[in-house]
Amino acid sequence: MARRTREIQIAEEGRDKGKVYLITEMSAFDTENWCMDVINAIVRNVDRETLALILPVFYSYLNNLNEKPLTEEEALELLKTQADESAINIEQSAQALGINFFLMFFQLPNRELKELAMPLLSCCKHFTSYEGKVTDDILNNPLYCEEPSTFSILKKAAFGLHTDFFVNAVKRTLPSLTAQTSEK
After folding, report:
1. Per-domain residue ranges for the chain?
2. Residues whose CB is less than 8 angstroms from the CB of residue 21 and which lie 6 or more positions away in sequence, other chains included
3. Nearest alpha carbon to residue 83 among 172, 181, 152
4. What is the pLDDT of residues 106-139, one digit of tens each?
5. pLDDT, tens digit (0-9, with 9 covering 90-100), for 47-95
6. Sign of the torsion formed by the C-alpha atoms of 115, 36, 32 and 88
7. CA-based torsion, 77, 83, 88, 94: positive or negative
8. In the chain, % of residues over pLDDT 70
9. Who wins on pLDDT, 86 or 164?
10. I need a surface site. Which of 19, 22, 88, 177 has the fewest CB within 10 A?
11. Between 129 and 148, residue with greater pLDDT
């Protein structure tokens, strides 16, 4: 199966307006390593209250990685940070957690953010629409991106392409966990 891609056309006024970029997801191995680095950076840098918002995301992700899954009690303990477990709307909760994860990533200390954003930018290529072909990585030629805001747009789009599985994992995990919580 081919890696997923996303085309981004810059709509903002400026030197990059109308340019098209192709973002191709990293390999599963590289995505896994990158995500673990991101999770570790976020956990090191957020306060307890903020961390409580995203624990279900980390639980669902880490539970898939662990040879020994978390126990039911451990999983339920993670959900006790929610004010009213029985009223959780799974779709909204998953989206909210995804948004919080996104915001926490872009609020990392500058040095860590730069280091973690470089793999995202390396997935971005300039697309010459009139020739119908992909050119070099944007990092290889400064003319491919002439506006600083273009880099931000591309980082955000690449981040979404590489982390949407978190939201999907939460959607799969929360229904069974909230049902268990409601029964207790």
Report:
1. 5-183
2. 7, 8, 9, 10, 124, 125, 126, 127, 138, 144, 150, 154
3. 181
4. 899 999 999 999 999 999 998 876 666 667 788 8
5. 777 766 666 555 555 555 544 555 556 655 655 544 344 444 555 666 6
6. negative
7. negative
8. 59
9. 164
10. 22
11. 148
pTM across the whole model? 0.70
Helix (H) / strand (E) element for 27: namely none
pLDDT for residue 173:
56
Nearest residue to 170 via CA among 71, 66, 17, 58: 58
Contact 103, 171 (CB under 8 A): no
Give yes or no for a contact between 113 and 6, defined as CB atoms under 8 angstroms apart: no
Q: What is the mean pLDDT of residues 136-146?
A: 84
Buried b or exposed e, range 67-92, using 16+ CB within 10 angstroms: eeeeeeeebbebbeebeebeebeeee
Q: Please give the helix or strand (H or E) that residue 135 lies within, else none.
A: strand 133-137
Asked if residue 38 lies in contact with residue 116, where contact means CB atoms within 8 angstroms, the answer is yes
Query: Which uninterrupted H or E stretch holds 68?
Result: none
Is 5 in a helix, a strand, or coil? strand
How far is it, in rounded angstroms, from Cα 13 to Cα 75? 47
With contact defined as beta carbons under 8 Å apart, do 170 and 57 qualify? yes
